[in-house]
Amino acid sequence: MTHSASPVYVAGLYPLTSLRLPIIPSFVPRGIRKKSILISAFTGAIFCLTLIGLLGIYVPQAIYGDGLTAENLPPATVGDRQASLFVKISPPILTTESQENAFLQFRLFDERDNQTIKFVTYEIAIRKADAPQDSRPLLRDFFHAPNGLLTIKVDPTESGSVQLFGDRDPFQNALVADPGGTVNIRGPILTDGGLYHIEVRIFGIDNIRNIFTPENAPRFDSYLSIGDITYHNLTYNGQGYNSTLISYYDEIDGFNFNPQTKQISWSMPFDWNTTRIQEQNIFVHEEIKLPNAFLEEIGASTSPATFIATVNNQPLTGRALAIDPFTSNDTTIVHYLINKNQILDLGATMTVEGNGSSGSGGSRTNITNISNETTTPAGSGSNSTTNMSSLSQNETDNNNRSSDNTIRSGTTDLMSFTLIPKTENATQSTSSDLTTDTGGIHAAVSWEPRQLRAGVESTVYINFSDAFSGEALNASVIYDMSILDTNGTVLLKAENLTAVNSTDSQIITFPADEIYQIEVNVKGVLRVADASPDTTRSGIARGYVVVPEFSPHSAGLFAVGGLLAAVLIGMRWHNSRQRKSHFRR
Asked: Between vectors from CA 249 to CA 477 and to CA 404, what angle results, nearest 5°?
């Protein structure tokens, strides 16, 4: 299906002068001509050298199942229909400062028409994902939801037994949800950040007496995460700067900052068993908030800030690294967004010493970080405040060597991250691949014309796909799109757009030569006409738009043209001098 592009104009600044190659005038008085030629030759040489330098620069642009806070599980046969299960865990982030209530939400629905199935009896078991399958779960019980919607409200406690409040039905001894679908629980459940395994079996639907036998009860397995948040004091030149690190997958281990290399590093537990990864939809999302004052103090590039990021010593680029300088006025937020295919690629390239495979099951190891400290026990706890100071270069080198060996030996159960702010000025380029911070949606973005200019209508084409599998969504996407300037001011905001069959286009006129940020806010995925959108895939994708920008191919042509122009100008000036010398004789 084709879509007409609706014009949307960015209000704001007057356009600046567009970039042009220097032009030699056809007639200039002789006294001025020599200076003009010299200036033109110098300008052309500088211009072409600049373009050549740009060609070598690459700048990083700017779940389901495992690593998400909500998901729709693949359908299973339930009675005479195909039913999917919606599961959500909240809040998305836990902190020790506020012991707030936690919630688990369940909804069984017919995949054909998205209608909620009523009178559902759930058997639910919850345990940490790294706990043995035969271990005692944090919670296991039966719950009956007359309207099909079930919310387990947890009042978390640090210790004690689990208390369940409510009446039980006489047929299955299941706790019956109240008219709003809620069952209240108190106890040590969902008190820690990390990955949780939620096992659900369906023992009844449609009628309280319609009960499945255990061998025929459909089973769903969900792996959802609660973000683990830690705060760290980055010390540089005697000055401390507060940073915040959030892991949306599992608890953070061994955070360190090395003032000599300006490298930030941390790790988290991760099961690298490739069979497990292939069988599940997995998404890893890490988020670190760095004060702009810290970036300025270490001499990092700004407008925009750029970074070198790695995961288990492998570089992270493209859609996997998203930079957000606008959400907070004095903070730059860096997102690691690593999907299933990228995790499999990482697992295939990792060097594991002392282990024959990348499988799971090995014992936890100590990890020595590339930092100013020695060995930090993995699993030393979270929600702590870390203060880093300086070491001599020899101590740093020794730590680097020991760290490399230890990290490689522990890759079977850790995912390790590093981040170094770039201190040289880098050239930003227009983003073409964007990934939402949650929900696992990939947005491929292209522009027409490819060389954007201020004051000229440009068409943005956007195509959404599944970031987990790389395949088409086979659905329409409801989204908002915003364009922000370098100060974070929203110049354009188009709301409730629909990408029919995942494809859409819009017409935009940029007011000035500038680096803009584009934000695509996915609000829902609509698979069936007249059905409610699937909001579990919601999330924000961010990237950059550079106006004007020359593509690498065009830049190469301009560079060659600039060199030829400089040579021709030099020859012309040389011949002119020879003619002048001849006339003087």
From this structure: 125
Rounded mean pLDDT, 575-582: 46
| pLDDT digit string, tens, across residues 492-504 | 899 999 999 999 9
List the beta bridge partners of residue 417: 266, 311
Helices (H), ranges, 374-528: 393-409
Phi, psi of 567 (to 5 degrees): -65, -45
pLDDT digits (tens, 9 = 90+) for 234-244: 999 999 999 99
Q: Does the residue 526 lie in any domain? A: yes
**DSSP β-bridge partners for residue 515:** 546
Residue 61 included in any domain = no
The answer to whether residue 314 scores a pLDDT higher than 80 is yes
State how far the Cα of 354 lies from the Cα of 331, in Å rounded to an integer.
41
Residue 65 lies in a domain: no
Instruction: State the DSSP H helix or E strand holding residue 36, giving kind and residue range, or none if neither.
Output: helix 30-55
Instruction: Yes or no: say if 237 and 343 are a contact pair by the CB < 8 Å rule.
Output: no
Q: Which amino acid is at 248?
A: Y
How much is the mean pLDDT over the chain? 74
**Phi, psi angle pair for 382, to nearest 5°:** -130, -175
In a 13 Å sphere around the CA of 72, the CA atoms on its Cβ side amount to: 20
Q: What confidence score (pLDDT) does residue 171 get? A: 83
b/e per residue, 303-339, with b = 16+ CB within 10 A?
ebbbbebebbeeebebbbbbbbbbeeeebbbbbbbbb
Q: Number of structural domains, the chain?
A: 4
- Identify the domain containing residue 162 by its residue range: 70-225
